[in-house]
């Protein structure tokens, strides 16, 4: 998918916040430091706070734009 410069900058900034958290939390879930049954919703809320929803929208918009051009 092609992103314009503004979207690319936004993706990079959001990924800087998301990637470390996803890695740390993922490991914590795997080794049992976080309980997936009781802490999953908290994990999802933190992803949203770090910009996941915005990231998803950027990629979805880029997909729609690219598929409509064909």
Structure description:
This protein is an all-alpha fold. It is built from three helices and no strands. It is elongated. The mean pLDDT is about 95.
Summarize the structure.
With 70 residues, this protein is mostly helical. It has 3 helices and no strands.
Order of helices and strands: HHH
Report the average pLDDT across residues. Answer: 95
Structural class: mainly alpha
Number of strands: 0
**CA-to-CA gap between the ends?**
13 Å
What is the percentage of strand-forming residues? under 5%
Apparent shape:
elongated
Q: What's the total helix number?
A: 3
Oligomer: single chain
Largest sheet: none
Low-confidence stretches: none
Query: What is the share of helical residues?
Result: over 70%
Instruction: Report the C-alpha radius of gyration, rounded.
Output: 15 Å
